[in-house]
Design brief:
The chain has 285 residues and is of the alpha+beta class. Among the domains are: 54 residues, no CATH class; 110 residues, Band 7 domain (Tetrahydropterin Synthase, Chain A, 2-Layer Sandwich); 34 residues, no CATH class. Helix content is 55%, strand content 22%. It contains seven helices and eight strands, in the order H-E-E-E-E-E-E-E-H-H-H-H-E-H-H. Strand 2 and strand 3 form a beta hairpin. The N and C termini lie far apart (185 Å). The mean pLDDT is 80.
């Protein structure tokens, strides 16, 4: 067989092979497929395996049959108690009706755009009937379930099932956060001032009580000291009286000597007295 004959034989074979390859396709376990003929849906395939289509006339649209994740951006919401929050949600969905999905949203980007619109309208309505304490408490799970159920009902029109929805984040708007932060600072400063005032008051009470007790203790001590001193003086006086009473003349002489000692203890002391004065009676003897 010459080269020309080989070429003539190969051309039909290649055409047949390309037609055969163009008519076969595989659907994976994680996929579901639509067969479209000039844009018109002719068949839905949900089971994995090898399939055949009409080449050049029919084309395949594959969709994921697994649960898909979708982060919904934060939206500003006014709660039932007029508090404002930025609420971000996290959704999980799957395509349950690929034919309806194709006719309504075409692809995942279109589906997520519709879900974003649904989430914003439904979440705002549900949060508008909830209070801040509910959103920040375990009740937020109930709120998320209500939003999910309502979104699921609306998403069925697009062939979508909303499997799960969670409130991913609840934050205050920046202007509210700053105002609350400043208010918290003011409250803490006021509380600190109250503590200081109370501390000064307690300090004054303790100091006043201590001064009072000190005065009482000192007064009692002086009283006891005066009493003890009086008893000592009385004892000394009694003993002296008994002692000096035994010899009055000696006591008079001893007292005069002590008076001389105190009066004549300086060389500059000058007395202008009569030598016959009674003060010098013992010196004149």
């Amino acid at each position: 067989m010459n080269s020309r004959s080989l070429i003539v034989f190969s051309i039909p074979l290649l055409v047949v092979l390309s037609i055969l390859l163009g008519s076969l396709f595989i659907v994976q376990q994680t996929q579901q497929a639509l067969i479209l003929e000039f844009g018109k849906l002719v068949r839905v395939i949900k089971e994995p395996g090898f399939y055949v289509k009409i080449p050049f006339l029919q084309n395949i649209r594959l969709y994921d049959n697994r649960i898909l994740d979708f982060d919904l951006s934060a939206i500003p919401a006014t709660l039932g108690d007029q508090k404002r929050l930025l609420v971000a949600t996290f959704a999980r969905y799957r395509i349950v009706n690929p034919a309806l999905f194709y006719r309504t949203v075409q692809n995942e980007q279109g589906a997520e755009q519709r879900l974003r619109i649904l989430n914003q309208s439904i979440a705002l309505g549900v949060l508008g009937q909830s209070n801040l304490t509910d959103v920040l408490s375990p009740k937020r799970a109930i709120i998320a379930k209500i939003i999910r159920d309502q979104m699921n009902i609306a998403a069925k029109a697009f062939g979508i099932e909303v499997v799960d929805l969670q409130l991913r984040g609840t934050d205050l708007p920046p202007e509210n956060s700053e105002a609350i932060f400043n208010r918290m600072i003011s409250e803490r400063q006021q509380e600190a001032q109250e503590f200081r005032s109370r501390g000064d008051e307690i300090s004054q009470e303790i100091k006043s009580t201590s001064d009072k007790e000190r005065t009482i203790i000192l007064a009692e001590a002086r009283k006891q000291a005066e009493k003890i001193k009086g008893e000592g003086d009385a004892y000394v006086t009694e003993k002296a009286a008994k002692t000096y009473g035994k010899d009055p003349s000696f006591y008079d002489f001893f007292a005069s000597l002590r008076a001389y000692q105190k009066a004549l203890n300086s060389q500059t002391t000058t007395f202008i007295l009569s030598p016959q004065d009674s003060f010098f009676k013992y010196l004149n003897r």
